[in-house]
Amino acid sequence: MSVARGAGAAVVMALLTAACGSAAGGAGTGHDGAAHADDEVSCRVAELVDTPDGVPVDQPTPSPPEPVVRAVDDPTDPRLPTPLVDPAELVPLGTRDGIAPIDDPRFVPATDIRFLAPCEAVLVVELNGDVRAYPVQILVWHEIVNDTVGGVPLAVTYCPLCNSAVAVERTVDGRILDFSTSGWVRNSALVMYDRQTGTLWDHFVGEAIIGDLTGTRLVRHAVQTVSFAQLLAVHPGARVLTRDTGARRSYGLNPYRFYDETATAFGFSGIAPGPYAEKEHFVGVALGDDAVAVRLEGLLAGGVVHLDVAGVPVVVWATPGVASPLSGQLTNAGREVGATGVFEARVGARRLHFERRRDRFVDRESGSTWTVTGTAVAGPLAGSRLTPVEHLDTFWFAWTAFHPGTRVVDP
Residue 118 belongs to what domain range? Predict the structure, then answer.
């Protein structure tokens, strides 16, 4: 299998070796390029220090390995069920388990965190009243966290090459799966495998593509990218994943430095439809057979876009304050990419329409004020919560590769 055009094998392997390496030190070798200095978010502080060791969370014991043919060993094995994708679409960009997942995540309250700058990106998952935040400066080195949130076993996953975050339930037909990295990508997106059956899974859509569980779709939950400062303002009691991962990594350095600034994507051999660049930032929403991509640049400028997706009234919004973790040499010194949110635009049966006012949002119907995470904090609807809609902050090439029929909104 060949590596995608525009990305030399040596460069690709240097990036992946940096992310896989166990020794602390430099950020690894990436593709040199110039960051957009005029668009950078300035949020570095004089000193960032490690947070005390985190507290583990009660985790169910994963199910044992099963005596089945394992696709992760050989995705072309003829004994496997008919695959959903041609194994030739898998591009090798590393080794199995080379980028090690976090199996024993440890957390402390957000107010105790000392290693994050205000504008650093964190991935927020809220389930059954349990709010967790996963710093991208950690996920960029591990890609998968096998966790339990609100009593539900989840895998929180992040693919640096697609800049995509997906949270999926780990329970399938009564078994509890745990996931690791396969060493392959498809359309530049992380391909995971479960340790129980060795099935290969597309991270981007949460579907088993080759192996014993082929065709199974995992239940997905909304992930929102916000800044650490925004998390503190809205959820100061949220539990934040710490650097106490059991591994030695150069957390805070970007092993894919300047990746957000390069023209082409690694591990991608397709053609992203024009007029947008491959790595233009979009917010993608897919409900049923309806998919919509909202261009981030215009969304950040205007603040709010209202959509109907598969008949559901949806609001997509963004506010500045988040540095791209993939843009510069440090995860807290990249260009502005903003915090985004996607929600059902209604409370009960009441349709709402919003506009951004500074870093908050106001609905025209009641005049209530809402946070970036979809909670009303002032006005007649104070205390109300908008229903999150699962979405992806990702690159244009990745979204169109998995949703080729997408509608586009360019505010």
Answer: 55-241
